[in-house]
Amino acid sequence: MYRQILAAQPDHTDALNLGGVAAFQSGDVNQGLKLLQGAVARRPDFVDGHNNLGNVLKALGRFDEAEAAYRRALEIKPDHADAHYNLGIVLEASARFNEAVAAYGCALEINPGFAEAHVNLGNVLKALGKLDEAVGAYGRALKIRPDHADAHNNLGSVLRELGKFDEAEAAYGRALEIKPDHAEAHYNHGIVLQDRGRFDEAIAAYHRALDIKPDYTEAQVNLGYALKELGRLDEAEAAYRRAIAIEPDHAPAHANLGDVLLEQGDPQAAVDVCDAYLKVHPCNSGVLAFKAIALDELGQRDAVRFLVDFDRFIRPVRFTAPAGFASVADFNAALARHVCAHPTLVFAPASHATRLGKHSGELLVEPKGPVAVLEGMIRGAAEDYLHSLPADPAHPFLANRPQGLWLTAWSIVLESQGHQLPHIHPTAWLSGVYYVELPDIVKTPAQGQAGWIEFGRPSSHFHCRVEPEVRAFQPEEGLMVLFPSYFYHRTVPFEGAGKRISISFDVRPVD
Q1: What is the pLDDT of residue 401?
Q2: Alpha-carbon gap, residue 243 to 227, rounded angstroms
Q3: 42 lies in a domain?
């Protein structure tokens, strides 16, 4: 019908706009884009045309152009709630979370009853680690739309992260009452059941998710884990192999498959799984870390030492007082105040390794305060580390040095008995920690290794029989320690008064 109108009136901007929307919704993206571009070219102040053009560009992944289209719509009509909301989606997809919060906030100032904006605001707040605020956003969405299944599901994920497992389970249950075929809610329900050791029920939940969404890789992987925990190793192996068939690049599926092979008594097969994956992804932290475990189980300690070379790759860095501070102690005091007051600091979030302590969200977002100075120190240390490494095509870490670096940082505040479980940083290339404040017991060598950082001990998740080689380092206030992200590390628990405050960071490669 719009084509008929345009055949008679090629400059009919409403027909160009609505025809573009219809073409896009019918799957003809190129025609939709062409018609919408024609609409705004003929009528530059066409608010809905710019907003709809942004939607098409957003769907095409052309986020910069989509952002420009939404901002043009908002120049013309600043109170256009949909344009603010759509701008928020683009900013969120670009990991510009603080800007996304502002955009969703503008949409909600204009239209407080905009349930989807409340939900998306909750999602961004969760990404920023502002978990209590995320709970509030989802709650406001559910007051407007009590039947919003996604809001219940996302609320459940935040409640689980906060350790409120009963409430999380109830939230997933409500999502599934509303939408029984909500695959993500079945999957998330399975996770919280698994957290509580109810593996048979978790398996049933994962199967329901897979019945709805057969290509759900994460559900296959978690199904494999639950089966493994029940000792059903052949079924677990089959689940991991199905996950790999669905998504051949999925690193955790390969590492978990290797672990089943270890438990079945075949460490060589576990190494082979790693090598096959590393041929395609030679510096994947998760699979490199597991390969070291499998090699140790195979009795190849020299190969483990080559891959996980403590002397070669762990680097301590000490600093003088940064500009603007009289001493390192003054700088650390400012960091400690900033970290302890950070709005994202929560107790032992479920998805992290911190136990009996607090863990923050992203620190490299405004207001950064003294963390902005530390960010420069991290960048300088990482660049020095990168440029000091020799070329060595035989070593996967050295042969795959990134060309560009992107940082993320978070804080950990531990008190007596606080610690971190053995873990790696699977999405990064280089990781590190800066020590801000330490209890006396950690600073006293005579107290053994209480509160030290230890490298080389795998997660209890894996079925290891061989005692690993480990190396522990004593923290110092003002010390930074850099290490490859695939090195397993943990914090040794400590007893005594005082806070152990550290800032951890990842250096991720940028294409």
Answers
A1: 85
A2: 14
A3: no
Residue 356 resides in a domain: yes
Tokens 């068939």 belong to which residue?
A: 245
Whether 57 is in a domain gets the answer: no
Is the bond preceding residue 370 a cis peptide, omega within 30 degrees?
Answer: no
If one counts the domains in the chain, the total is 1
Among left, alpha and beta (phi > 0; psi -120 to 50; other), residue 61 is left
Q: What is the CATH number of the domain that holds 364?
A: 2.60.120.620
Q: Please list the residues that pair with 506 across neighbouring strands.
A: 408, 431
- The span from the first CA to the last CA of the chain, in angstroms, equals 45
β-sheet bridge partners, residue 423: 489
CB neighbour list of residue 109: distance below 8 Å, 6 or more residues apart: none
Q: pTM of the full predicted structure? A: 0.89
Does residue 372 lie within any of the structural domains? yes
Q: Which parts of the chain register pLDDT below 50?
A: none
Distance CA 454, CA 225 (A): 26
Q: How far apart are CA 482 and CA 432, in angstroms?
A: 4
Report the distance separating Cα 153 and Cα 314, nearest Å. Answer: 41
Specify burial of residue 289 (Cβ count, 10 A radius: 0-12, 13-18, 19+).
Answer: buried
Distance CA 165, CA 294 (A): 34
Expressed as residue numbers, the domain containing 498 is 312-510
The pLDDT value given to residue 310: 97
128: its two tokens: 């920023």
pLDDT at 511: 60
Residue type, 33: L
Task: Tell me the pLDDT tens digit for each residue of 18-55.
Answer: 888 898 888 888 888 888 988 889 999 999 999 999 99
Bridge partners for 507 per DSSP? 407, 430
The pLDDT score that the predictor gives to residue 416 is 93
Task: List, as own/partner pairs, every contact residues 174-181 make where C-beta atoms lie below 8 angstroms and the sequence separation is at least 24, other chains included.
Answer: 175/149, 175/150, 176/149, 178/147, 178/148, 178/149, 178/152, 179/149, 181/212
Give the pair of three-digit tokens for residue 375.
């960010």
